[in-house]
From TrEMBL:
It is found in: Cell membrane. The keyword Membrane applies. The keyword Disulfide bond does not apply. This is Major facilitator superfamily (MFS) profile domain-containing protein. It comes from Bifidobacterium longum subsp. infantis CCUG 52486.
Length: 77
């Protein structure tokens, strides 16, 4: 369990780093100012902040198997 949490934390930090390094490319490709592209980072951080408590609630409410099957069902459609 600890290894899974460590890998998840590493991937979250890696995602944030990759997104920040992609901001200049996004600004150029979409021809938008930096203030507009920074909303992407803000949205990502807000989504993380909202999903952490929701995930804790779901883990306490459902079994791991149920969560996995629901997730696969949602993304399969």
């Amino acid at each position: 369990m600890v290894i899974t949490l460590m890998i998840g934390s590493f991937v979250a930090i890696l995602n944030q780093t990759l997104m920040i390094s992609a901001l200049p490319t996004l600004m150029h490709e979409f021809d938008v100012p930096s203030s507009t592209v920074q909303w992407l980072t803000t949205g990502f951080m807000l989504t993380n902040g909202i999903m952490i408590p929701i995930t804790a609630f779901l883990i306490e409410t459902f079994t791991t198997r149920q969560l996995f099957l629901y997730a696969m069902g949602i993304f399969a459609e």
